[in-house]
Amino acid sequence: MTFSLANRVAIVTGAAGLLGREHCIALAGAGARVVAADADGPGAQRVAAEVGGVAAMVDITRPESVAALRDRALALAGRIDVLVNNAAINDRFESPEAALEQSKFEHYPLALWQKSLDVNVTATFPCCQAIGAAMAARGAGSIINIASTYGIVAPDQSLYRRPDGSQAFYKSIAYPATKGAVLMMTRFLAAYWGAAGVRVNALSPGGVENAQEPFFIDAYARKTPLGRMAQPSDYRGALIYLASDASAYMTGANLVVDGGFTIW
Fold first, then answer.
1. Would residue 30 count as lying in a domain?
2. Segments forming the whole domain that contains residue 108
3. Tally of domains within the chain
4. H/E element holding 205?
5. Per the domain annotation, does 3 fall within a domain?
6. Closest Cα to residue 201, out of 257, 234, 235, 242?
7. Is 175 a catalytic residue?
């Protein structure tokens, strides 16, 4: 029963994304009332309908939009028990040719760096501030920040090299830097809100297989002790653990679920 989330309210940002949907499925399966939040309103509605939850369109880069999300969740049951800060972006380039050149650190555009900071780090701030403060006022809650193995270790650029030796692109600096910042934010908030009964932990997933080129999937699998990339559903159990009373004495931690990718 310590893994049960019955009668609890959980917010998931970036709910319409690949892992966001899985987080919503996991929380609903454990009994939570899920608020599926995303900038993609129709996408949020589809996920909410799938899990029997509530959809919320939100722009997490705008504090007033986050405050409206908090109020919508509080209206459900007068409480918010779980916040999953899942919303994030990765680099998108105009073309394969642009990706190769712009992803090099020497040429990486400052605008892309700033955009990643705005969404992956700065936008996490008002979510934690507004929703975490409501948890602290009630004296209980669990915040789960979705980080990444690339917040722990540097990218191995050889993973993005084709069999003919050509580089498809370089994993750029913004995503690892922003996910590293998320880990530090997690530790800060865990220390700050510990006495208020709010637990703050990070979940660092490994790479998820999602129609990448075969050479990349094979290279990633060879670098991983379990010999494969993750499936989207592989993170459900870890998320429920962090959200529920099963992890009642756990805060400020980074739960790494990566098939062993970071042990070598």
1. yes
2. 9-258
3. 1
4. strand 198-205
5. no
6. 242
7. yes
Compute mean pLDDT per 10 residues along the chain, 264 residues long, and list them.
Answer: 94 97 98 98 98 98 97 95 96 82 95 96 97 98 98 97 96 97 98 98 97 96 98 98 98 98 95
Is residue 177 assigned to a domain?
yes
Catalytic residue among 160, 170, 175, 241: 175
Given strand 9-13, what is the order of strands in its sheet? 54-57, 33-38, 9-13, 82-85, 141-146, 198-205, 254-257
- Amino acid identity of 227? G
Contacts of 21 (CB under 8 A, 6+ apart): 15, 47, 50, 232
What is the 3-state composition of the chain as percent helix, strand, coil, each rounded to the nearest 5?
Answer: 50, 15, 35
Q: Is 263 domain-assigned?
A: no
Give the helix/strand (H/E) hosting 123: none
Residue closest to 142 by CA, chosen among 78, 52, 219, 82: 82
Answer whether 86's CB lies under 8 Å from 146's CB. Answer: yes
pLDDT of residue 98: 85
CATH number at residue 166: 3.40.50.720
Confidence (pLDDT) at 40: 97
Phi, psi (deg, nearest 5) at residue 69: -65, -45
pLDDT value at residue 95: 79
